[in-house]
Specification:
The chain is mainly β and about 140 residues long. Helices cover about 0% and strands about 55% of the residues. The protein starts with 8 loop residues before the first strand and ends with a strand.
Length: about 140
């Protein structure tokens, strides 16, 4: 576990991750760059994932609740959970922005991120993010 010095950035890669929770429990499997999976958005050592925004879309005809949480452990369920957003109602056939560039989230290698859908398979979470790598 290490905290990179972001003054010495060696690369920044822009990506968009997405998740479609088919369960109502903590969902930590994000897909980006086609098929690459990020568990809990946890980056490699000396890397930070900067979450620029989180967009939640309800693709059903009924309202559903959305939650977003950060854990202080790379294995989400093993840490203490801190909610960024908790049970926000997303109207049917609508989208909301839960996090935007004014309040980005920085996920380090000792943290993880999870999303929750109050109704399985009702909400899609889209996360534009930056993979920032730095020297030690």
């Amino acid at each position: 576990m290490s905290s990179p010095n972001l003054i010495t950035v060696t690369s920044t890669i822009f990506q968009t991750a997405y998740a479609l929770p088919g369960v109502t429990t903590a969902y930590t499997s994000f897909t980006y760059y086609g098929t690459t999976a990020l568990t809990g958005m946890t980056p490699a050592s000396l890397t930070v994932n900067k979450i620029d925004s989180i967009i939640v879309s309800n693709t059903t005809s009924s309202a559903a609740t959305a939650s977003v949480a950060i854990s202080n452990n790379a294995t989400f369920a093993s840490g203490t959970i801190y909610y960024v957003a908790y049970q926000i109602s997303v109207p049917p056939n609508a989208s909301i922005i839960v996090v935007d560039k004014t309040t980005p989230l920085y996920i380090t290698d000792s943290q993880s991120l999870a999303v929750y859908s109050g109704t399985a398979s009702a909400l899609t979470f889209t996360l534009p993010f930056e993979i920032i790598t730095a020297s030690s």
